[in-house]
Please model this.
Amino acid sequence: MGLKQKSADLKKRMREAVKGGGTKAIEKQKATGKMTARERIMSILDNKSFHEYDLFVKHAGKDFNMDKKYLPGDGVITGTGTINGHPVCIYAQDFTVAGGSLGWAHAKKITKIMDHAMKLKIPLIGINDSGGARIQEGVNALAGYGEIFYRNTQASGVIPQISVILGPCAGGAVYSPALTDFVFVVDKVSKMFITGPEVIKSVLGEEISMEELGGARVHCETTGNAHFYAESEEESFSQIKKLFSFIPWNNERKAETFPKRGPKTRQYKIENIIPSDPRQPYDVRDVIKAICDDSEFFEIQEMFAANIVIGFARIAGQSVGFVANQPLVLAGVLDVDSSDKAARFIRYCDSFNIPLVTLVDLPGYLPGVDQEHAGVIRHGAKLLYAYSEATVPKITVIMRKAYGGGYIAMCSHHLRADFVCAWPTAEIAVMGPEGAANIIFRNEIKNAENPDEMRKLKVKEYKNKFANPYVAAAYGYIDAVIEPFETRNFLMHALEISESKIEYIPNKKHGIPPF
Amino acid sequence: MKENDVLTKKVKKVSYKSLLIENIKYRTKLTKKYQSRKPYEKKDIKKLTAFIPGTIKKIYVKPGKKVKEGDNLLILEAMKMNNELLSPTSGVVKAVLVKKGDLVTKNQLLIEFE
Model:
């Protein structure tokens, strides 16, 4: 055979392999409203940037007549490419080939591209659409999952790892996404659970649909397993591209800087957002939009534990992570879920050199037996741990209430914030005036002729004396009291002078955070 | 100011509730999770409940039977394990609310004591 024939032979082999599960299976995939694995990769990556690896890998099944079967690419497509010009490694499970089931060679392809991503120090994107372990391959399928989990863990905090759930992801398979940084889900397409509706019905007699058990909404609202919710695959892909604009390629780099752009101050007037009565709600995201470039805030886990807001934005072109109490929901309290949500995000930003900006306005922790028994001590401690441990620039703005333990937890100077400022509306105190007055003046109130009048008087007295930023300022616990309109300038300056911040942590293998 | 008017109008549509923290009433939205939380109930020693969902394999007692604390009352099969459920108290069985072969949910009442 000459080169011409050999080229023709290669083309023929490639044509065969890229067909995946064939026309019928592809039609079936499309009928359920899903893209094919190859289309997904092409839609996420820059045009013509995809370079495929291991197209000709053969599956390793020998038992149950599997050796007679041809499974193109063994149900997964892997390769490299670029997103907005940034290099990434990517894999997409192909449901049209044996239901995207994971066998030994399938796993080998994934772990190979993972190793590649680690060596090149570039991000990894995994698209999950798989029926689960290939049962015919037995323990080799399990081995495959284990090898993936181990690599996810090793890569954690070194390269960004993104999971996109575009189909079923069930049983042990769910733990790879859970170990990665961000999980993207799509309404009616994504399904994640450990045990499916059938098992639950047969064992427990409880009936539930796949969507109700582990659909996109459930994981965004209830479990907190997913971070980004989209109505369609296309929307999900544009979210991924946006995320990549805020994060660096790896933990040794910084996120890309963009040209500085002012906030849309006509739409978001910082002075008008916050009601002066600390008991009245407002949307803290409006404050973020009044501060950041172009008023563009990229929120993460919008539907989960909405009493705390997390996400990325830019200040003077630099990517920053915002953590903000949300008075609009549950008065912005800290609780099990909100502590957990914020703590993980703080550790993400710290791992990838993204400065943290914390906006404080909270009444404290959510009271209740359910919270105590759900372990609010253990979960709340995660927030203290994450803030204390973080060595990226940490800037805190106390806008209104900062009471009690909540004041400490929200990146106070005591947890080594680099800059803490407060607005004149700030109330930094050991607890709210009503609670404090009741304790401090208990006897005066009890013995008064009119206890209610006395209580009101004492609350007022306490409010006047302590519900302000100046007591904390007198001890140097805050660096400056600034007017709300000065906030953006304060942040820009703080970020600018923190460029070369170095903080040393005691030499250790790793800490023991309250997981 | 116009934009802020629009903002307040939007805010007005939301149904705010109040949340009491340290004697201060805050106006805010409540989450689904918060609203669906179950009030705490003290554990009743006179009631034996299923600690795990499963199937009743065997029942050793009938109403009127005197039992001692730690006596084996029934076998609840769950996750392929036969779990012996022991009496939490000494006393007389008042009612057995399940029969052999029943599928029970977590926290379902199985046996009551007098």
In short: The interface with chain A takes residues 3-4, 7, 11, 16, 19, 21-34, 37-40, 53-54, 78-79, 103, 105 of chain B (CB under 8 Å).
